[in-house]
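Usage

Read records sequentially. Each one opens with the input sequence:
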Amino acid sequence: MTTPASPAALAFVWPVRVYYEDTDAGGVVYHANYIRFMERARTEFLRHLGFELNLLEREQRLIFAVRDLNVDFRRPARLNDLLEISVDFEAVRAASLLFVQQVSRDGQLLCAGRVRVAALSADSFRPMAIPEFMLERLECFQSG
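and closes with the structure output:
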């Protein structure tokens, strides 16, 4: 599902419900779980564009690995909250993607993150170029 997100005119949004397993002893979402939520949303974003990670590995020998991650926690999410995890990107390079993500509840920003993923060879774990067919589809999404 795609819906406009507040800062980005075009962003992919993935809903996530908060369950007991996502919370800590204080009753709020444990900080590492925001990263899990963002990972799932990025995976669903790629699936939405027609890219299955297991097929990319098997057919293109391509995997993605998080190279850099920055998260700004602003407000807590709690049990049973329905969160919206947005995915957009600010840079598409030959061998990496820089994603910009937000976790919101009812339009209120709870957490923001920037995640750079590197494209790696599944065989050598060395950087490799993102295939042209992927770059074209990503650029189409980026330009609207």
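Summary fields computed downstream for this record:
- The two ends are 15 Å apart (CA to CA).
- The domain at 12-143 is CATH 3.10.129.10 (Thiol Ester Dehydrase; Chain A).
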